[in-house]
From TrEMBL:
The keyword Transferase applies. This is Glycosyltransferase. It comes from the Eukaryota. GO terms for molecular function: UDP-glucosyltransferase activity. Belongs to the UDP-glycosyltransferase family. Residues 447-473 are annotated as: Disordered. The keyword DNA-binding does not apply. The lineage of its organism: Eukaryota, Viridiplantae, Streptophyta, Embryophyta, Tracheophyta. It comes from Papaver atlanticum. Gene3D superfamilies: Glycogen Phosphorylase B. Keywords: Glycosyltransferase, Transferase. Its EC number is 2.4.1.-. Pfam families: UDPGT. It is an enzyme of class 2 (transferase).
Length: 497
C-alpha cells in the first residue's frame, strides 16, 4: 500500500533501554522504519551505542538509511562485571530506574535541536518520563516493552480486574480473566513489577509511574505478527483503542549473514566456524539451547542441561552465557564434557549469534527460556520449542507456545509416575526430580523423535515459520501494519500543522 502523503519530513525518535531483550528488537525496528523513508534517531548513551554502532553503520553505509544516533552523556550505575542485565536483584532494579530517569533532562535539551522536528517518540516502557516530554513537544508517544500480544493482554486484564490484589499466595493458581483461552497461572509466575506487591516504596513508585505512562500512551508497538496470536492481537487492539501495531517478527529484517551474526553483544564464536560446524550436520538434526541474555540458572542446573543434551543422543549447540561462566567452565573440565562430546556438541561460552544459528537448516529444535524475542526467533526458524521459563513474562509465553500454538514441549512435562500418570509440580519438587538431566533428555527426544505427534508439531512450527516470513513481506500483515502506523503518525502531524 503506497503512502499518500509526502512523508519526507517524518522523523521518529526511538529510546531503547539497555537490556538486550529490549535493545535488539528496537534496533531492528529502527531499520524497518528507516526502510520506509522515515528519518530515525536512536537515543542512547555511549556505553550502549557501542553495542549496535556497527549495525547502524552498515544500515547507513550499505543501504543508505537515515538512522542517526543521539548519544547522551549521563552518569550511569556502574555495570557489574557479569553483565547481568535482567536487574532481578532489587538494588540493580533501583539503579536501573534511576539511570532511566536521569536521561530526561539531557534528552529534552537535545530534543529541541533535532532537525527536522520529531514527529513521534517510540520509547521503551521504562522511560515513563517521555509522557511529559511528548506533551511538552505536542507529539504522540508510543510504548514498546518487548512483549507479545498474549502476555500484554494477560497483564492488561489482570490489572483491570484487580484480581492480583485478592490473591495472597504466590503459588495459588488462578485463571486470567477475559482471554480467548483458559490460561492458568500463579502470582509467582507473573512479573512482580506489574503486580507491584513488592514492599520497597521506591520501587513501587517507579512501577506505578511506568504503569500509568503505559496506560496513557498514544499507542503500543508490538514485535509480533497477527497470524501468530490473532485473537489476542484483536482483543488487545480493542482494549487499546485500536492503537496497537504488530510489526514483527523484527529479527527478519536481518537477511545478510553479517546482520544475523552481529546482533547484540559481540559473538564469542567466529561466524564461519559456527556455520561450518552446522553445515556438517544433517538438516533438522541439531538442538539449539540458549537461555537469553540474562539467565540466572545455577551452575549445577546448567550442567544438568548439558548432560541431558548429551544423553539425548542428538547433536547440539549449547550456549553458556549471560552470567559468570567460570564456575560452569570448571564443571565442564571436571566432567571432560567437551572432550567427550567433540564433534557432536558445540559449546558456546558467552554470546551466540542466535539468529544466524537458528536460521540454519541443521537446527531441528530450540530449548529456550521463552523470552519473547527468542520465542519469535524460534518461530521464524520454523522449529518446535522446548520450554524452560524462568521469570518475567516467560511463563505466559510458554502457555502460548505449548497450550495455544501447540508447537512446544515443556521440559519436565514428560515426567511420569511408574504407572504412566504424570507427576504434579509439587510431587516433582518433593521427589527431588526438578527439571534435570532426565527431563531435558526426555523432552529433547519427544521433540526430535519421529512419530505422529512429533510430526504434527513440526508441521505446525514449519507453517508458522512460513507465515511469519510472509507477514514481513510487502503485502503481509506486519508490513501493512507498519504502513498504517506511519500513516497514523503522518495524520497526527498534519492535524497539528
Ligand atoms: N541473544 C543472542 N545471543 C545470545 C543470547 C541472546 O543473540 O547468546 C539474543 C536473542 O537472539 C534475542 C535476545 O538476545 O534476540 C534475548 O531476548 P529474549 O527476549 O529472548 O530474552 P531476554 O534476554 O530478554 O530474557
Amino acid at each position: 500500500m503506497a503512502l499518500s502523503v509526502d512523508q519526507e519530513q517524518l522523523h521518529f525518535v526511538l529510546i531503547p533501554q539497555k537490556g538486550q531483550g529490549h535493545l535488539i528488537p528496537m534496533i531492528d525496528m529502527a531499520k524497518l522504519i528507516a526502510q520506509r523513508g522515515v528519518i530515525v534517531t536512536i537515543v542512547t548513551i555511549p556505553l550502549e551505542a557501542a553495542k549496535f554502532k556497527s549495525f547502524v553503520d552498515r544500515a547507513i553505509g550499505c543501504r543508505g538509511l537515515q538512522i542517526r544516533l543521539l548519544q547522551l552523556e549521563v552518569a550511569t550505575a556502574k555495570p557489574n562485571g557479569h553483565e547481568k542485565e535482567a536487574a532481578t536483584v532489587l538494588s540493580q532494579l533501583k539503579d536501573f530506574f534511576k539511570t532511566a530517569s536521569s536521561l530526561q533532562e539531557p534528552f529534552e535539551q537535545s530534543f529541541r535541536k533535532l532537525q527536522p522536528a520529531p514527529s513521534c517518540i517510540i520509547a521503551d516502557i521504562v522511560f515513563d518520563w517521555t509522557s511529559e516530554t511528548a506533551i511538552k513537544f505536542g507529539i504522540p508517544r508510543i510504548v514498546f516493552d518487548g512483549f507479545g500480544c498474549c502476555s500484554r493482554l494477560c497483564y492488561h486484564n489482570i490489572l483491570q480486574s484487580k484480581l492480583h490484589g485478592s490473591i495472597m499466595s504466590d503459588s495459588e493458581p488462578f485463571v486470567i480473566p477475559g482471554l480467548p483461552d483458559k490460561i492458568e497461572v500463579t502470582k509467582g509466575k507473573v512479573p512482580m513489577h506489574f503486580l507491584s506487591h513488592n514492599s520497597d516504596e521506591q520501587l513501587k513508585d517507579a512501577i506505578h509511574r511506568i504503569n500509568k505512562a503505559d496506560e496513557t500512551a498514544y499507542g503500543v508497538m508490538i514485535n509480533s505478527f497477527q497470524e501468530l496470536e490473532p485473537k489476542y492481537a484483536q482483543m488487545y487492539k480493542k482494549a487499546k483503542n485500536n492503537k496497537v501495531w504488530c510489526i514483527g517478527p523484527v529479527s527478519l529484517c536481518n537477511q545478510e549473514t553479517i546482520d544475523k551474526a552481529e546482533r547484540g553483544n559481540k559473538a564469542s564464536i567466529d561466524k564461519n566456524q559456527c556455520l561450518q560446524w552446522l553445515d556438517s550436520k544433517e538438516p533438522g538434526s541439531v538442538v539449539y539451547a540458549c537461555f537469553g541474555s540474562c539467565w540466572n540458572l545455577t551452575s549445577s542446573d546448567m550442567m544438568e542441561i548439558g548432560l541431558g543434551l548429551e544423553s539425548s543422543g542428538y547433536p547440539f549447540v549449547w550456549v553458556i552465557g549471560g552470567g559468570d561462566i567460570s564456575e560452569i567452565d570448571k564443571l565442564l573440565t571436571e566432567n571432560r564434557f567437551e572432550e567427550r562430546n567433540k564433534g557432536r556438541g558445540l559449546v558456546i561460552k558467552g554470546w551466540a549469534p542466535q539468529v544466524l544459528i537458528l536460521s540454519h537448516k541443521a537446527i531441528g529444535g530450540f530449548l529456550t527460556h521463552c523470552g519473547w524475542n527468542s520465542t519469535l526467533e524460534g518461530v521464524c526458524a520454523g522449529v518446535p520449542l522446548l520450554t524452560w521459563p524462568m521469570g518475567a513474562e516467560q511463563f505466559l509465553n510458554e502457555n502460548l507456545i505449548v497450550q495455544v500454538l501447540k508447537i512446544g514441549v515443556k521440559v519436565g512435562e514428560a515426567e511420569v509416575h511408574a504407572d504412566g500418570t504424570k507427576l504434579t509440580e509439587e510431587e516433582a519438587m518433593t521427589e527431588g526430580v526438578g527439571k534435570k538431566k532426565q527431563e531435558v533428555e526426555k523432552a529433547v527426544k519427544k521433540v526430535m523423535d519421529g512419530g505422529e505427534e512429533g510430526e504434527e508439531r513440526r508441521k505446525r512450527a514449519r507453517e508458522l515459520g512460513e507465515t511469519a516470513k510472509k507477514a514481513m513481506e510487502e503485502g503481509g500483515s506486519s508490513h501493512f501494519n507498519m504502513t498504517l502506523f506511519i500513516q497514523d503518525m503522518m495524520h497526527y502531524k498534519a492535524g497539528r500543522e
